[in-house]
């Protein structure tokens, strides 16, 4: 038995355990205890347990009732990372007082960045097939190019939302007069397609809300509309991942953000049957008003 191991063995009899732990920690910190006698995979954990013990708070062994992984359902026996802090509960109100939830147990679907000549009609078909209604957040320049799609959206019973004239992410940082001009122009274009139509909501592109854009939207009679669930379908992650993200993050009353414009929305379209079907079963789908 190596000399340092024999010393440790003599010191770990009852009455000497605390002294042994302190001595071990001291020699480790001074670099005079040759850890080479320990198996390589145990060196780091042994060092940390010894120093913890020397401080008067011995570290529980992995897999023990108080050790790493304790209290975690399905945690592997014999080890595992310590659980972190539980995630903070999601807020019920969006940035700067914007609307984030439906206010009822049912969830709501919203589609941004249209109307698009390819994807909007196909999304409308999915909604019609599933017998649910949604809110379409329209970009003014795209309304001008596709006014017949705005008319179809309204004809099929969906709600409209102003999404700015040209999807300007920095619009909220501009003077209020400029914000008002942008939102007014978009509303006029929507009503050129469907005279007298109600536009109850405004959604700031990118969710880049500011007090100014919230104030202007309200002054124009529109509710600032945020969201609660963003599956990032705009990043084209594929239908399975879009479906999974919505399934795992939706809660009662969620407003779900999706896109029918702004690029190739084939993945969003492919995810719609499973997403809408699951949301109907779990929560019900309501129309924002």
Break the fold down into its secondary structure elements and pairings.
Blueprint: H1 3-11, H2 17-30, H3 40-54, E1 108-114, H4 119-130, E2 135-138, H5 140-145, H6 147-155, E3 159-162, H7 176-193, E4 201-202, H8 211-219, E5 223-224, H9 239-249, E6 255-259, H10 266-282
Parallel strand pairs: 1-2, 1-6, 2-3, 3-4, 4-5
- Cα separation of the termini: 80 Å
Written as H for each helix and E for each strand, in order along the chain, the element string is: HHHEHEHHEHEHEHEH
CATH class bucket of the largest domain: Alpha Beta
Radius of gyration (Å): 30 Å
Could you state the CATH homologous superfamily of the largest domain? Glycoside hydrolase/deacetylase
Q: Whole-number average pLDDT?
A: 80
Tell me how many strands there are.
6
Flag low-confidence runs.
1-21, 23-81
Q: How many individual helices?
A: 10
Sheet with most strands = 6 strands, parallel
How many structural domains does the protein architecture include? 2
CATH fold-level topology of the largest domain: TIM Barrel
Could you say what the CATH architecture of the largest domain is? Answer: Alpha-Beta Barrel
The computed structural class is alpha/beta
Q: Shape from CA axes? A: globular
How does this structure look, described?
The protein is of the alpha/beta class and 289 residues long. It folds into 2 domains: 3-54, no CATH class; 99-282, TIM Barrel (Alpha-Beta Barrel), CATH 3.20.20. The protein has 10 helices and 6 strands; from the N terminus they run αααβαβααβαβαβαβα. The chain has a 6-stranded parallel beta sheet. Helix 2 (17-30) packs across helix 3 and helix 4 runs parallel beside helix 10. 33% of the residues are buried.
């Amino acid at each position: 038995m190596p000399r340092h191991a024999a010393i440790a063995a003599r010191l770990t009899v009852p009455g000497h355990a605390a002294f042994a732990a302190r001595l071990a920690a001291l020699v480790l910190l001074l670099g005079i205890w040759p850890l080479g006698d320990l198996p390589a995979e145990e060196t780091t954990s042994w060092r940390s347990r010894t120093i913890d013990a020397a401080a008067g708070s011995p570290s529980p062994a992995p897999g023990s009732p108080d050790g790493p992984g304790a209290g975690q359902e399905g945690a592997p026996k014999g080890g595992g990372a310590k659980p972190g802090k539980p995630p903070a509960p999601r807020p019920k109100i969006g940035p700067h007082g914007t609307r984030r939830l439906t206010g009822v147990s049912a969830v709501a679907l919203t589609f941004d960045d249209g109307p698009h000549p390819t994807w909007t009609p196909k999304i409308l078909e999915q909604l019609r097939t599933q017998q649910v209604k949604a809110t379409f957040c329209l970009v003014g320049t795209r309304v001008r190019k596709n006014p017949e799609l705005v008319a179809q959206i309204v004809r099929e019973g969906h709600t409209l939302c102003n999404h700015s004239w040209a999807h300007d992410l920095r619009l909220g940082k501009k003077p209020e007069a400029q914000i008002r001009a942008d939102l007014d122009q978009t509303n006029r274009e929507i009503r050129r397609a469907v005279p007298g139509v109600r536009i109850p909501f405004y959604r700031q592109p990118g969710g880049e809300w500011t007090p100014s854009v919230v104030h202007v939207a309200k002054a124009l009679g529109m509710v600032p509309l945020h969201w609660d669930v963003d599956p990032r379908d705009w990043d084209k992650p594929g239908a399975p991942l879009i479906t999974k993200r919505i399934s795992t993050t939706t809660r009662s009353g969620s407003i779900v953000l999706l896109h029918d414009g702004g690029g190739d929305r084939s993945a969003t379209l492919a995810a719609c049957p499973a997403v809408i079907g699951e949301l109907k079963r779990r929560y019900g789908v309501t129309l924002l008003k």
